[in-house]
Protein backbone atom coordinates (compact mmCIF):
# COMPACT_ATOMS: atom_id res chain seq x y z
CA UNK A 1 0.00 0.00 0.00
CA UNK A 2 2.82 2.37 0.82
CA UNK A 3 4.31 1.81 -2.64
CA UNK A 4 1.09 2.86 -4.37
CA UNK A 5 0.73 5.91 -2.14
CA UNK A 6 4.22 6.88 -3.16
CA UNK A 7 3.33 6.41 -6.83
CA UNK A 8 0.26 8.59 -6.46
CA UNK A 9 2.33 11.32 -4.88
CA UNK A 10 4.97 11.04 -7.58
CA UNK A 11 2.54 11.21 -10.50
CA UNK A 12 2.95 14.97 -11.14
CA UNK A 13 6.71 14.53 -11.04
CA UNK A 14 6.51 11.55 -13.40
CA UNK A 15 4.55 13.60 -15.93
CA UNK A 16 7.12 16.40 -15.79
CA UNK A 17 10.30 14.39 -15.61
CA UNK A 18 9.17 11.27 -17.46
CA UNK A 19 10.15 8.70 -14.85
CA UNK A 20 8.92 7.24 -11.58
CA UNK A 21 12.44 6.98 -10.25
CA UNK A 22 16.00 7.12 -11.51
CA UNK A 23 19.00 4.84 -11.61
CA UNK A 24 22.08 6.17 -9.88
CA UNK A 25 25.13 5.70 -12.10
CA UNK A 26 27.70 7.72 -10.15
CA UNK A 27 28.04 8.83 -6.54
CA UNK A 28 31.42 9.85 -5.17
CA UNK A 29 32.89 12.72 -3.15
CA UNK A 30 29.61 14.65 -2.98
CA UNK A 31 28.88 14.35 -6.69
CA UNK A 32 26.19 12.11 -8.09
CA UNK A 33 24.57 11.44 -11.45
CA UNK A 34 21.21 9.76 -12.07
CA UNK A 35 19.76 8.52 -15.33
CA UNK A 36 16.01 8.24 -15.95
CA UNK A 37 14.04 6.98 -18.91
CA UNK A 38 10.63 6.24 -20.35
CA UNK A 39 9.73 3.98 -23.25
CA UNK A 40 6.09 4.32 -24.27
CA UNK A 41 4.20 2.30 -26.84
CA UNK A 42 1.20 4.54 -27.49
CA UNK A 43 -1.59 4.39 -30.09
CA UNK A 44 -4.26 7.02 -30.78
CA UNK A 45 -7.68 6.04 -32.11
CA UNK A 46 -9.66 8.85 -33.74
CA UNK A 47 -11.71 9.69 -36.82
CA UNK A 48 -9.40 12.70 -37.16
CA UNK A 49 -6.69 11.28 -39.44
CA UNK A 50 -4.23 13.89 -38.21
CA UNK A 51 -4.48 12.37 -34.73
CA UNK A 52 -5.09 8.68 -35.46
CA UNK A 53 -2.19 6.23 -35.37
CA UNK A 54 1.10 5.47 -33.65
CA UNK A 55 2.28 7.96 -31.04
CA UNK A 56 5.13 5.98 -29.46
CA UNK A 57 8.24 7.69 -28.12
CA UNK A 58 11.32 7.33 -25.94
CA UNK A 59 12.56 9.80 -23.32
CA UNK A 60 15.76 9.79 -21.36
CA UNK A 61 17.18 12.20 -18.83
CA UNK A 62 20.30 12.95 -16.82
CA UNK A 63 20.24 14.66 -13.45
CA UNK A 64 23.45 15.73 -11.77
CA UNK A 65 24.21 17.21 -8.37
CA UNK A 66 27.42 18.23 -6.64
CA UNK A 67 27.94 19.35 -3.05
CA UNK A 68 30.28 22.34 -3.02
CA UNK A 69 30.10 22.77 0.76
CA UNK A 70 27.51 22.38 3.51
CA UNK A 71 25.45 25.28 2.09
CA UNK A 72 26.06 25.32 -1.66
CA UNK A 73 24.87 22.67 -4.12
CA UNK A 74 25.19 22.71 -7.88
CA UNK A 75 22.68 20.86 -10.08
CA UNK A 76 21.66 20.25 -13.67
CA UNK A 77 19.00 18.37 -15.61
CA UNK A 78 18.67 17.30 -19.24
CA UNK A 79 15.84 15.40 -20.91
CA UNK A 80 15.40 14.48 -24.58
CA UNK A 81 12.61 12.77 -26.52
CA UNK A 82 12.75 10.64 -29.66
CA UNK A 83 9.68 9.96 -31.77
CA UNK A 84 9.34 6.25 -32.50
CA UNK A 85 6.46 6.56 -34.97
CA UNK A 86 8.45 7.80 -37.98
CA UNK A 87 9.93 5.32 -40.43
CA UNK A 88 13.69 4.81 -40.61
CA UNK A 89 13.60 5.68 -44.31
CA UNK A 90 12.13 9.10 -43.57
CA UNK A 91 15.26 10.14 -41.71
CA UNK A 92 13.02 12.14 -39.39
CA UNK A 93 12.88 10.87 -35.82
CA UNK A 94 11.61 14.22 -34.47
CA UNK A 95 14.16 14.35 -31.67
CA UNK A 96 13.82 17.29 -29.30
CA UNK A 97 15.20 18.65 -26.07
CA UNK A 98 12.48 18.98 -23.44
CA UNK A 99 14.64 20.26 -20.57
CA UNK A 100 18.21 21.51 -20.26
CA UNK A 101 19.12 23.72 -17.32
CA UNK A 102 21.79 24.14 -14.66
CA UNK A 103 21.85 26.03 -11.40
CA UNK A 104 23.02 26.46 -7.86
CA UNK A 105 21.25 26.22 -4.50
CA UNK A 106 22.40 28.11 -1.41
CA UNK A 107 20.80 26.79 1.79
CA UNK A 108 17.61 28.60 2.81
CA UNK A 109 18.49 31.49 0.48
CA UNK A 110 17.02 29.52 -2.41
CA UNK A 111 18.14 28.33 -5.84
CA UNK A 112 18.85 29.90 -9.21
CA UNK A 113 18.94 28.11 -12.56
CA UNK A 114 19.03 28.99 -16.25
CA UNK A 115 18.17 27.15 -19.45
CA UNK A 116 15.18 25.35 -20.94
CA UNK A 117 12.71 24.69 -18.14
CA UNK A 118 9.07 25.04 -17.14
CA UNK A 119 7.63 28.54 -17.32
CA UNK A 120 6.48 30.12 -14.08
CA UNK A 121 2.77 29.76 -14.95
CA UNK A 122 3.24 25.99 -14.93
CA UNK A 123 3.89 26.11 -11.17
CA UNK A 124 0.09 26.16 -10.88
CA UNK A 125 -0.85 24.82 -14.32
CA UNK A 126 1.06 21.62 -13.63
CA UNK A 127 -1.36 20.68 -10.86
CA UNK A 128 -3.95 19.57 -13.43
CA UNK A 129 -1.49 18.29 -16.05
CA UNK A 130 -1.55 14.79 -14.52
CA UNK A 131 -3.95 12.89 -16.81
CA UNK A 132 -2.88 9.54 -18.28
CA UNK A 133 -2.31 11.12 -21.72
CA UNK A 134 -4.17 14.36 -22.42
CA UNK A 135 -4.87 17.44 -20.31
CA UNK A 136 -2.88 20.49 -19.32
CA UNK A 137 -3.68 22.30 -22.57
CA UNK A 138 -6.36 24.90 -21.86
CA UNK A 139 -3.70 27.63 -21.89
CA UNK A 140 -0.43 25.74 -21.32
CA UNK A 141 1.43 25.58 -24.63
CA UNK A 142 5.05 24.64 -25.30
CA UNK A 143 7.30 27.57 -26.27
CA UNK A 144 4.50 30.08 -25.81
CA UNK A 145 5.90 32.64 -23.36
CA UNK A 146 6.01 31.15 -19.82
CA UNK A 147 2.96 28.88 -19.89
CA UNK A 148 4.80 25.54 -20.11
CA UNK A 149 8.23 24.30 -21.29
CA UNK A 150 10.20 27.14 -22.82
CA UNK A 151 13.74 28.38 -23.41
CA UNK A 152 15.86 31.29 -22.20
CA UNK A 153 14.48 31.08 -18.65
CA UNK A 154 16.27 32.30 -15.53
CA UNK A 155 14.49 31.18 -12.36
CA UNK A 156 14.92 31.94 -8.68
CA UNK A 157 13.09 29.61 -6.27
CA UNK A 158 12.69 29.74 -2.51
CA UNK A 159 11.16 27.00 -0.34
CA UNK A 160 9.51 27.54 3.03
CA UNK A 161 10.07 31.33 2.73
CA UNK A 162 13.75 31.33 3.63
CA UNK A 163 13.15 28.45 6.03
CA UNK A 164 10.80 30.50 8.22
CA UNK A 165 7.30 29.43 7.03
CA UNK A 166 6.75 25.73 6.34
CA UNK A 167 4.99 25.10 3.05
CA UNK A 168 5.22 28.66 1.70
CA UNK A 169 7.19 28.63 -1.56
CA UNK A 170 7.69 31.38 -4.11
CA UNK A 171 9.56 31.87 -7.36
CA UNK A 172 10.54 34.71 -9.70
CA UNK A 173 11.38 34.13 -13.34
CA UNK A 174 12.83 36.14 -16.21
CA UNK A 175 12.60 35.10 -19.86
CA UNK A 176 14.90 36.59 -22.46
CA UNK A 177 13.58 37.31 -25.90
CA UNK A 178 13.37 34.65 -28.58
CA UNK A 179 12.78 36.39 -31.89
CA UNK A 180 14.13 36.71 -35.43
CA UNK A 181 16.74 39.26 -34.36
CA UNK A 182 18.66 36.94 -32.01
CA UNK A 183 20.45 33.63 -32.41
CA UNK A 184 17.20 31.66 -31.84
CA UNK A 185 15.63 33.00 -35.06
CA UNK A 186 12.17 32.12 -33.75
CA UNK A 187 9.21 34.42 -33.13
CA UNK A 188 8.32 33.03 -29.70
CA UNK A 189 8.45 35.88 -27.18
CA UNK A 190 9.95 39.17 -26.12
CA UNK A 191 11.52 39.89 -22.74
CA UNK A 192 9.24 38.95 -19.84
CA UNK A 193 9.01 38.18 -16.17
CA UNK A 194 6.72 36.30 -13.83
CA UNK A 195 6.26 35.14 -10.29
CA UNK A 196 4.41 32.40 -8.44
CA UNK A 197 3.59 31.40 -4.91
CA UNK A 198 2.22 28.16 -3.51
CA UNK A 199 1.24 27.42 0.06
CA UNK A 200 0.91 23.92 1.47
CA UNK A 201 -1.65 24.36 4.26
CA UNK A 202 -1.11 20.84 5.55
CA UNK A 203 -3.36 17.78 5.45
CA UNK A 204 -2.82 17.60 1.68
CA UNK A 205 -4.38 20.99 0.85
CA UNK A 206 -2.44 23.57 -1.21
CA UNK A 207 -3.20 26.95 -2.78
CA UNK A 208 -1.31 28.60 -5.62
CA UNK A 209 -1.18 31.64 -7.87
CA UNK A 210 1.09 32.76 -10.73
CA UNK A 211 1.45 35.83 -12.93
CA UNK A 212 3.50 36.55 -16.05
CA UNK A 213 3.92 39.53 -18.35
CA UNK A 214 6.02 39.72 -21.51
CA UNK A 215 6.79 41.94 -24.45
CA UNK A 216 5.49 40.60 -27.73
CA UNK A 217 7.91 40.57 -30.64
CA UNK A 218 7.59 43.13 -33.42
CA UNK A 219 6.17 40.53 -35.76
CA UNK A 220 3.69 39.28 -33.15
CA UNK A 221 2.48 42.84 -32.57
CA UNK A 222 1.56 43.19 -36.24
CA UNK A 223 -1.83 41.61 -35.41
CA UNK A 224 -2.69 44.89 -33.60
CA UNK A 225 -3.67 43.08 -30.40
CA UNK A 226 -1.06 44.95 -28.37
CA UNK A 227 2.58 44.95 -27.38
CA UNK A 228 2.20 42.90 -24.17
CA UNK A 229 1.18 39.33 -23.39
CA UNK A 230 -0.12 38.74 -19.86
CA UNK A 231 -1.52 35.85 -17.86
CA UNK A 232 -2.69 35.07 -14.34
CA UNK A 233 -3.43 31.62 -12.93
CA UNK A 234 -4.85 30.43 -9.62
CA UNK A 235 -5.29 26.92 -8.30
CA UNK A 236 -6.20 24.65 -5.43
CA UNK A 237 -5.35 21.00 -4.89
CA UNK A 238 -5.85 18.21 -2.39
CA UNK A 239 -3.38 15.33 -2.37
CA UNK A 240 -3.80 12.90 0.53
CA UNK A 241 -5.44 9.60 1.51
CA UNK A 242 -4.97 8.20 -2.03
CA UNK A 243 -7.13 11.05 -3.39
CA UNK A 244 -5.93 13.69 -5.82
CA UNK A 245 -8.19 16.68 -6.59
CA UNK A 246 -7.09 19.83 -8.41
CA UNK A 247 -8.70 22.87 -9.99
CA UNK A 248 -7.21 25.86 -11.78
CA UNK A 249 -8.57 29.03 -13.34
CA UNK A 250 -6.49 31.21 -15.63
CA UNK A 251 -6.87 34.21 -17.91
CA UNK A 252 -4.47 35.09 -20.70
CA UNK A 253 -4.22 38.21 -22.87
CA UNK A 254 -2.62 38.29 -26.35
CA UNK A 255 -0.87 35.02 -25.60
CA UNK A 256 -2.64 31.79 -26.56
CA UNK A 257 -2.31 30.36 -30.05
CA UNK A 258 -5.25 28.66 -31.78
CA UNK A 259 -6.10 27.22 -35.19
CA UNK A 260 -4.01 25.95 -38.07
CA UNK A 261 -2.64 29.44 -38.82
CA UNK A 262 -1.38 29.99 -35.26
CA UNK A 263 -3.63 32.96 -34.59
CA UNK A 264 -3.49 34.63 -31.17
CA UNK A 265 -6.53 35.02 -28.92
CA UNK A 266 -7.14 38.52 -27.59
CA UNK A 267 -8.27 36.98 -24.30
CA UNK A 268 -8.91 33.48 -22.95
CA UNK A 269 -10.68 32.20 -19.85
CA UNK A 270 -9.54 28.73 -18.82
CA UNK A 271 -10.72 26.07 -16.37
CA UNK A 272 -9.25 22.65 -15.59
CA UNK A 273 -10.66 20.19 -13.04
CA UNK A 274 -9.12 16.82 -12.16
CA UNK A 275 -10.13 14.00 -9.79
CA UNK A 276 -8.12 10.79 -9.29
CA UNK A 277 -8.03 7.93 -6.80
CA UNK A 278 -5.22 5.43 -6.20
CA UNK A 279 -6.43 1.95 -5.29
CA UNK A 280 -4.16 -0.33 -3.27
CA UNK A 281 -3.94 -2.89 -6.09
CA UNK A 282 -2.48 -0.39 -8.59
CA UNK A 283 -5.49 1.04 -10.46
CA UNK A 284 -5.79 4.81 -10.66
CA UNK A 285 -8.97 6.05 -12.41
CA UNK A 286 -9.01 9.66 -13.58
CA UNK A 287 -11.78 12.11 -14.47
CA UNK A 288 -11.20 15.65 -15.77
CA UNK A 289 -12.73 18.63 -17.56
CA UNK A 290 -10.62 21.02 -19.64
CA UNK A 291 -12.09 24.26 -20.99
CA UNK A 292 -10.79 27.36 -22.76
CA UNK A 293 -12.95 30.17 -24.10
CA UNK A 294 -11.57 32.77 -26.50
CA UNK A 295 -12.93 36.30 -26.15
CA UNK A 296 -13.11 39.08 -28.75
CA UNK A 297 -11.47 36.91 -31.40
CA UNK A 298 -12.78 38.84 -34.40
CA UNK A 299 -12.49 35.71 -36.55
CA UNK A 300 -14.21 36.22 -39.91
CA UNK A 301 -15.72 33.35 -41.89
CA UNK A 302 -17.52 34.65 -44.96
CA UNK A 303 -20.03 37.24 -43.79
CA UNK A 304 -19.99 36.08 -40.16
CA UNK A 305 -17.64 37.19 -37.39
CA UNK A 306 -16.91 34.86 -34.48
CA UNK A 307 -15.89 36.77 -31.36
CA UNK A 308 -16.49 34.53 -28.33
CA UNK A 309 -15.72 30.88 -29.11
CA UNK A 310 -14.61 27.81 -27.21
CA UNK A 311 -11.04 26.90 -28.13
CA UNK A 312 -10.95 23.74 -26.01
CA UNK A 313 -13.75 21.91 -24.26
CA UNK A 314 -13.55 18.22 -23.38
CA UNK A 315 -14.21 15.66 -20.69
CA UNK A 316 -11.40 13.20 -20.08
CA UNK A 317 -11.96 9.70 -18.67
CA UNK A 318 -8.91 7.53 -18.16
CA UNK A 319 -6.94 5.22 -15.92
CA UNK A 320 -3.41 4.15 -15.07
CA UNK A 321 -2.65 0.65 -13.86
CA UNK A 322 0.68 0.30 -12.04
CA UNK A 323 1.97 -3.25 -12.19
CA UNK A 324 4.87 -1.81 -10.18
CA UNK A 325 6.78 1.46 -10.21
CA UNK A 326 8.41 0.61 -13.55
CA UNK A 327 5.63 -0.79 -15.75
CA UNK A 328 2.33 1.02 -16.30
CA UNK A 329 -0.63 0.44 -18.61
CA UNK A 330 -2.89 3.37 -19.38
CA UNK A 331 -5.97 4.34 -21.35
CA UNK A 332 -7.37 7.83 -21.85
CA UNK A 333 -10.59 8.90 -23.62
CA UNK A 334 -10.93 12.53 -24.68
CA UNK A 335 -14.60 13.33 -25.25
CA UNK A 336 -14.58 16.48 -27.35
CA UNK A 337 -17.44 18.90 -26.61
CA UNK A 338 -16.53 21.55 -29.20
CA UNK A 339 -19.21 22.50 -31.71
CA UNK A 340 -18.63 21.55 -35.32
CA UNK A 341 -19.36 24.98 -36.80
CA UNK A 342 -17.96 27.46 -39.28
CA UNK A 343 -15.34 28.67 -36.82
CA UNK A 344 -13.86 25.28 -35.89
CA UNK A 345 -13.94 24.11 -39.51
CA UNK A 346 -12.29 27.21 -40.93
CA UNK A 347 -9.69 27.43 -38.12
CA UNK A 348 -9.10 23.65 -38.41
CA UNK A 349 -9.72 23.02 -34.71
CA UNK A 350 -10.48 19.35 -34.16
CA UNK A 351 -13.91 18.45 -32.78
CA UNK A 352 -13.30 14.68 -32.81
CA UNK A 353 -12.92 12.32 -29.88
CA UNK A 354 -9.59 10.57 -29.26
CA UNK A 355 -8.72 7.39 -27.37
CA UNK A 356 -5.14 6.73 -26.27
CA UNK A 357 -3.96 3.27 -25.21
CA UNK A 358 -0.41 2.71 -24.04
CA UNK A 359 2.02 0.63 -22.07
CA UNK A 360 4.96 2.35 -20.43
CA UNK A 361 8.27 1.16 -19.07
CA UNK A 362 10.01 3.76 -16.94
CA UNK A 363 12.99 3.95 -14.63
UniProtKB/TrEMBL annotation:
The keyword Signal applies. Its main location: membrane. One of its GO terms (molecular function) is porin activity. Residues 1-22 form the signal peptide. GO terms for biological process: monoatomic ion transmembrane transport. It is a multi-pass membrane protein. Keywords: Membrane, Signal. It is found in: Cell outer membrane. This is Porin.
Amino acid sequence: MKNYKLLAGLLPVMMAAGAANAAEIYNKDGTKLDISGQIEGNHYISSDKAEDGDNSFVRFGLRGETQVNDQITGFGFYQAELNAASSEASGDNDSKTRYAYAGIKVGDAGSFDYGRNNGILYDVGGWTDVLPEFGGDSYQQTDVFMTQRAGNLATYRNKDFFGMVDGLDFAVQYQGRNDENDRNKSERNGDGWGMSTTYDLGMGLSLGAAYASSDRTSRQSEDMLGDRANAVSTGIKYDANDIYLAAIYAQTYNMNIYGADDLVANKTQNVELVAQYQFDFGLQPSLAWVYSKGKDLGYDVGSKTYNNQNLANYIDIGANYYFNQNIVAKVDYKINLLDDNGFTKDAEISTDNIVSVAIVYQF
